[in-house]
Amino acid sequence: MSDKHPVPEVSVSQRLAQVIVNARPESSPESSRDARATGRRMLLDIAGIAVAARAQPYVRAALDALDQDGPCTVFGHARRLGAEGAAFVNGTAAHGEDFDDTYEGGPVHAGVVIVPALLAAAERHGLGGQDFLRGLAVGAEVMCRLCAVAPTKVHKAGFHPTAVFGVFGAVAGIGAALRLSAQQLTDAFGIAGSLASGIIEYLADGSWTKRLHPGWAAQSGYRAVRLAMGGFKGPRTVFEGSHGVFHGFANTLEGDFTAMLDGFGEKWIWPTIAFKPYACGTMCHPYIDCAREFGKLGLDPAAIAAIECEAAEGVLHRLWEPLDLKQAPPNGYAAKFSVPYAIAVAILRGDAGLGEYDDEIVKAPAIVALARKVKYVVDPANPYPKQFTGHVKVTMADGEVHEFRQGYFKGGVDHPLSDDDLTRKFHANCAYGGLAPADSEALLAHIDHVFDSAKVDFAPFAR
């Protein structure tokens, strides 16, 4: 290690492990209330999305790739798997339609890693609802807080923060639920650094690899914990080391670890996690809302001459470029990461739900033609990643201009979806996945009481 980065007396992972051991999100009345409410919303959302995707080819491929059956539930399937397998399939299914929760300060998808990881660990080890809740809170908190160390740098380096940070969140959550010692947690974090992964080259052609990132992180976190419990050793400088996580995945040794650790266990940020109303990349959402406002004017979309949008520089490589590809995405999955498509489909169909990202809809000539009229200019003052904003300026063929702005993400902390909104989304997702209404209601009732259960078990709802 260089002189510039000497070995610290107490490493970041050791400090993090100690605050996790001491954390009690389920204890004080205020933190417990927030934890229960957020945990319930997260579990409800992830379960519904996983059911919605259960018949998709990528879910079948993930399920068929695994040989080991076991005691753990896979949402929407009768087959039960070992802990790693269940975590992998549930994480893959729940992220596959890009309809899952988002932490705006990242962006990072916490629930899609932490729920599958903790559910698998809880069912495998016979945990009760309170330990399950403790793990959800700590795991999600770690994923969200890691985003503050080197904001936007992981994405810019070509990696998916949900995949990279997810394995550490899974370690933290499972370790907290299983009551690991500080030394075991430190070793597990060190091991997890070698299991972190997830490049974003799927952006080139809309292929499926992003879908598996949360599942891989969830199962890898469980594996790291089990190795540490068995005495396997990992580097204690996994975060800040000269060859550590942020050097490897963010190209920096200047991470702000104080921002991650400050107030951990006292001030909880995971209750600010946002839930999506649209089935696509989160930063597309404010643009969709703006486009839907234009649609309310009742003007003929064929009379649109051009659409110009202000955009944050930090999202261009994922949502705007290469522009010709984003204006005509090759399939429904690629379209989920295209602002031009999101604007066009919102104007022409008035929504951006699961059905709007069907491969055939994406190729509709009218949608492609309108998306080709959408371009952007960089807004150097855009507050991303702290805030997601939208701007759509529509110029009609007769020269008339209609301009719309939205300075927030609908579903985010300042404009959250209500519990009723999320319940409707859950039932709609279950119906999309072919689950009978009675089964959907039974699953909802079980989720509502799971944190009070003596033993977490979703086996009665395997279908």
UniProtKB/TrEMBL annotation:
It holds the Pfam family MmgE_PrpD_C. Residues 14-251 form the MmgE/PrpD N-terminal domain. One of its GO terms (molecular function) is lyase activity. Gene3D superfamilies: 2-methylcitrate dehydratase PrpD. It comes from the Bacteria. Residues 278-432 form the MmgE/PrpD C-terminal domain. Belongs to the PrpD family. This is 2-methylcitrate dehydratase.
